[in-house]
Design a protein that fits this description.
mainly alpha, Leucine-rich Repeat Variant, 2 domains, 66% helix, 0% strand
Length: 243
Amino acid sequence: MTPAQLARLGLRLLKEKSDPVRARGVQKYFKEEVKCLGLTAAQQRELALNVYLMIKNDWTVKEATNFCEIMLEEPYFEARSLGILVLEKFHKDFPRSLFLKIKGWLARNLCDNWALVDSLCPNSVAALFEKYPKLVTSIKTWTHSSNRWVRRASAVSFIKLARKGQYLDAVYDIADLLFSDSDDLIQKATGWLLREAGKTDMKRLEKFLLENGPRIPRTTLRYAIERFEVKKRKSILEATKPG
Protein backbone atom coordinates (compact mmCIF):
# COMPACT_ATOMS: atom_id res chain seq x y z
CA MET A 1 0.00 0.00 0.00
CA THR A 2 1.41 3.39 -0.95
CA PRO A 3 1.28 6.47 1.31
CA ALA A 4 -1.34 8.02 -0.97
CA GLN A 5 -3.50 4.89 -0.83
CA LEU A 6 -3.25 4.70 2.95
CA ALA A 7 -4.08 8.39 3.20
CA ARG A 8 -7.32 7.84 1.30
CA LEU A 9 -8.17 4.85 3.48
CA GLY A 10 -7.30 6.71 6.66
CA LEU A 11 -9.48 9.65 5.74
CA ARG A 12 -12.40 7.33 4.96
CA LEU A 13 -12.01 5.54 8.31
CA LEU A 14 -11.88 8.87 10.13
CA LYS A 15 -15.05 10.10 8.45
CA GLU A 16 -16.85 6.88 9.38
CA LYS A 17 -16.26 7.73 13.04
CA SER A 18 -17.17 11.40 12.73
CA ASP A 19 -19.38 13.03 15.34
CA PRO A 20 -20.70 16.44 14.19
CA VAL A 21 -21.95 17.41 17.65
CA ARG A 22 -18.61 16.73 19.28
CA ALA A 23 -16.82 18.43 16.39
CA ARG A 24 -18.68 21.68 17.09
CA GLY A 25 -17.79 21.45 20.77
CA VAL A 26 -14.07 21.10 20.09
CA GLN A 27 -13.88 24.63 18.73
CA LYS A 28 -14.13 26.13 22.23
CA TYR A 29 -10.57 24.98 22.95
CA PHE A 30 -9.12 27.05 20.11
CA LYS A 31 -9.02 30.74 19.23
CA GLU A 32 -8.38 29.99 15.57
CA GLU A 33 -10.89 28.08 13.48
CA VAL A 34 -10.21 24.33 13.55
CA LYS A 35 -12.03 21.98 11.18
CA CYS A 36 -12.82 18.78 13.09
CA LEU A 37 -14.55 15.47 12.47
CA GLY A 38 -15.27 15.00 16.17
CA LEU A 39 -13.23 11.92 17.13
CA THR A 40 -11.98 11.53 20.67
CA ALA A 41 -8.26 11.33 21.39
CA ALA A 42 -8.67 7.64 22.24
CA GLN A 43 -10.35 6.97 18.91
CA GLN A 44 -7.58 8.75 17.06
CA ARG A 45 -4.87 6.76 18.79
CA GLU A 46 -6.68 3.47 18.24
CA LEU A 47 -7.07 4.21 14.54
CA ALA A 48 -3.42 5.28 14.28
CA LEU A 49 -2.35 1.95 15.77
CA ASN A 50 -4.58 0.00 13.42
CA VAL A 51 -3.24 1.92 10.43
CA TYR A 52 0.33 1.37 11.58
CA LEU A 53 -0.23 -2.38 11.92
CA MET A 54 -1.28 -2.45 8.27
CA ILE A 55 2.08 -1.18 7.04
CA LYS A 56 4.68 -1.70 9.75
CA ASN A 57 6.31 -4.67 8.03
CA ASP A 58 6.39 -3.05 4.61
CA TRP A 59 7.16 0.62 5.13
CA THR A 60 10.32 2.49 6.03
CA VAL A 61 10.44 5.88 7.69
CA LYS A 62 10.48 7.41 4.20
CA GLU A 63 6.97 6.16 3.42
CA ALA A 64 5.79 7.17 6.89
CA THR A 65 7.12 10.70 6.35
CA ASN A 66 5.39 10.92 2.97
CA PHE A 67 2.15 9.70 4.55
CA CYS A 68 2.41 12.29 7.30
CA GLU A 69 2.98 15.08 4.80
CA ILE A 70 -0.03 14.01 2.73
CA MET A 71 -2.22 13.95 5.83
CA LEU A 72 -0.96 17.33 7.01
CA GLU A 73 -2.24 18.81 3.77
CA GLU A 74 -5.78 17.68 4.69
CA PRO A 75 -8.08 20.26 6.29
CA TYR A 76 -9.32 18.07 9.15
CA PHE A 77 -7.60 18.15 12.52
CA GLU A 78 -7.94 14.38 12.95
CA ALA A 79 -6.44 13.64 9.54
CA ARG A 80 -3.35 15.69 10.35
CA SER A 81 -3.19 14.11 13.77
CA LEU A 82 -3.30 10.64 12.19
CA GLY A 83 -0.29 11.47 10.05
CA ILE A 84 1.65 12.66 13.09
CA LEU A 85 0.72 9.63 15.20
CA VAL A 86 1.75 7.14 12.52
CA LEU A 87 5.04 8.93 11.84
CA GLU A 88 6.12 8.87 15.49
CA LYS A 89 5.90 5.07 15.52
CA PHE A 90 8.97 5.07 13.24
CA HIS A 91 10.99 7.24 15.64
CA LYS A 92 13.87 4.77 15.99
CA ASP A 93 14.66 5.23 12.31
CA PHE A 94 14.27 9.00 12.07
CA PRO A 95 16.94 10.57 9.80
CA ARG A 96 18.53 13.85 10.84
CA SER A 97 16.96 15.51 7.79
CA LEU A 98 13.50 15.11 9.33
CA PHE A 99 14.32 17.98 11.70
CA LEU A 100 14.28 20.59 8.94
CA LYS A 101 11.31 18.93 7.25
CA ILE A 102 9.31 19.31 10.45
CA LYS A 103 10.33 22.95 10.69
CA GLY A 104 9.10 23.37 7.12
CA TRP A 105 5.73 21.83 8.01
CA LEU A 106 5.39 24.25 10.91
CA ALA A 107 6.48 27.25 8.85
CA ARG A 108 3.91 26.36 6.18
CA ASN A 109 1.20 26.28 8.86
CA LEU A 110 0.44 22.61 8.30
CA CYS A 111 0.24 22.38 12.09
CA ASP A 112 -1.72 25.57 12.65
CA ASN A 113 -3.04 25.09 16.16
CA TRP A 114 -1.50 24.39 19.54
CA ALA A 115 -2.82 20.80 19.73
CA LEU A 116 -1.11 19.65 16.53
CA VAL A 117 2.17 21.30 17.49
CA ASP A 118 1.95 19.71 20.91
CA SER A 119 1.33 16.31 19.34
CA LEU A 120 4.16 16.47 16.82
CA CYS A 121 6.98 18.10 18.75
CA PRO A 122 7.19 16.55 22.25
CA ASN A 123 7.39 13.13 20.61
CA SER A 124 8.96 13.33 17.16
CA VAL A 125 11.27 16.33 17.63
CA ALA A 126 12.28 15.02 21.05
CA ALA A 127 13.12 11.67 19.45
CA LEU A 128 15.42 13.51 17.04
CA PHE A 129 17.17 15.24 19.97
CA GLU A 130 17.85 11.92 21.63
CA LYS A 131 19.26 10.51 18.41
CA TYR A 132 21.10 13.66 17.25
CA PRO A 133 21.90 15.77 20.36
CA LYS A 134 23.56 18.54 18.34
CA LEU A 135 20.13 19.50 16.99
CA VAL A 136 19.40 20.99 20.41
CA THR A 137 21.60 23.96 19.51
CA SER A 138 19.85 24.37 16.15
CA ILE A 139 16.35 24.60 17.61
CA LYS A 140 17.31 27.66 19.64
CA THR A 141 17.16 29.65 16.40
CA TRP A 142 13.48 28.72 16.11
CA THR A 143 12.74 31.13 18.97
CA HIS A 144 13.34 34.02 16.55
CA SER A 145 10.99 32.76 13.83
CA SER A 146 8.21 35.02 12.58
CA ASN A 147 5.92 31.96 12.69
CA ARG A 148 4.21 31.39 16.03
CA TRP A 149 4.05 27.60 15.54
CA VAL A 150 7.80 27.36 14.97
CA ARG A 151 8.37 29.43 18.11
CA ARG A 152 5.97 27.29 20.16
CA ALA A 153 7.73 24.19 18.86
CA SER A 154 11.06 25.47 20.21
CA ALA A 155 9.58 25.17 23.70
CA VAL A 156 7.21 22.21 23.63
CA SER A 157 9.74 19.95 21.88
CA PHE A 158 11.47 19.70 25.27
CA ILE A 159 8.40 19.05 27.43
CA LYS A 160 8.87 15.30 27.96
CA LEU A 161 12.65 15.59 28.15
CA ALA A 162 12.49 18.39 30.73
CA ARG A 163 10.09 16.31 32.80
CA LYS A 164 12.86 13.70 33.07
CA GLY A 165 15.52 16.29 33.89
CA GLN A 166 17.16 16.09 30.47
CA TYR A 167 18.59 19.01 28.46
CA LEU A 168 17.80 21.47 31.26
CA ASP A 169 20.55 23.90 30.21
CA ALA A 170 18.91 24.16 26.78
CA VAL A 171 15.46 24.41 28.37
CA TYR A 172 16.43 27.44 30.43
CA ASP A 173 18.25 29.03 27.48
CA ILE A 174 15.14 28.70 25.32
CA ALA A 175 12.86 30.04 28.04
CA ASP A 176 15.15 33.04 28.39
CA LEU A 177 14.99 33.66 24.63
CA LEU A 178 11.19 33.49 24.64
CA PHE A 179 10.55 35.89 27.52
CA SER A 180 10.24 38.81 25.11
CA ASP A 181 7.52 37.06 23.09
CA SER A 182 4.12 38.74 23.42
CA ASP A 183 2.12 35.84 21.93
CA ASP A 184 0.02 34.20 24.65
CA LEU A 185 0.45 30.74 23.10
CA ILE A 186 4.20 31.15 23.38
CA GLN A 187 4.00 32.52 26.91
CA LYS A 188 1.88 29.57 28.02
CA ALA A 189 4.20 27.08 26.33
CA THR A 190 7.24 28.65 28.00
CA GLY A 191 5.60 28.49 31.41
CA TRP A 192 4.58 24.89 30.81
CA LEU A 193 8.16 24.03 29.85
CA LEU A 194 9.56 25.65 32.99
CA ARG A 195 7.00 23.88 35.17
CA GLU A 196 8.10 20.53 33.72
CA ALA A 197 11.78 21.41 34.21
CA GLY A 198 11.05 22.12 37.86
CA LYS A 199 9.74 18.63 38.49
CA THR A 200 13.27 17.26 38.91
CA ASP A 201 14.95 20.42 40.27
CA MET A 202 12.59 22.88 41.97
CA LYS A 203 15.46 24.86 43.50
CA ARG A 204 16.97 25.55 40.08
CA LEU A 205 13.59 26.68 38.76
CA GLU A 206 13.00 28.98 41.72
CA LYS A 207 16.47 30.52 41.37
CA PHE A 208 15.94 31.06 37.65
CA LEU A 209 12.55 32.70 38.19
CA LEU A 210 13.84 35.03 40.90
CA GLU A 211 16.83 36.05 38.79
CA ASN A 212 14.70 36.85 35.75
CA GLY A 213 11.43 37.81 37.40
CA PRO A 214 10.65 41.26 35.93
CA ARG A 215 11.50 40.00 32.42
CA ILE A 216 9.09 37.08 32.63
CA PRO A 217 5.56 37.57 31.28
CA ARG A 218 3.10 37.04 34.13
CA THR A 219 1.27 34.37 32.14
CA THR A 220 4.52 32.43 31.79
CA LEU A 221 5.32 32.89 35.46
CA ARG A 222 1.93 31.68 36.66
CA TYR A 223 2.24 28.50 34.61
CA ALA A 224 5.82 27.94 35.80
CA ILE A 225 5.02 28.12 39.53
CA GLU A 226 1.94 25.89 39.55
CA ARG A 227 3.71 23.06 41.39
CA PHE A 228 5.06 25.22 44.20
CA GLU A 229 3.20 25.43 47.50
CA VAL A 230 0.71 28.29 47.78
CA LYS A 231 2.95 30.30 50.12
CA LYS A 232 5.94 29.88 47.79
CA ARG A 233 3.87 30.86 44.75
CA LYS A 234 2.76 34.07 46.42
CA SER A 235 6.32 34.82 47.47
CA ILE A 236 7.68 34.35 43.94
CA LEU A 237 4.90 36.46 42.41
CA GLU A 238 5.62 39.26 44.85
CA ALA A 239 9.40 39.09 44.45
CA THR A 240 9.22 39.18 40.66
CA LYS A 241 6.80 42.08 40.19
CA PRO A 242 7.93 44.42 37.41
CA GLY A 243 9.30 47.68 38.77
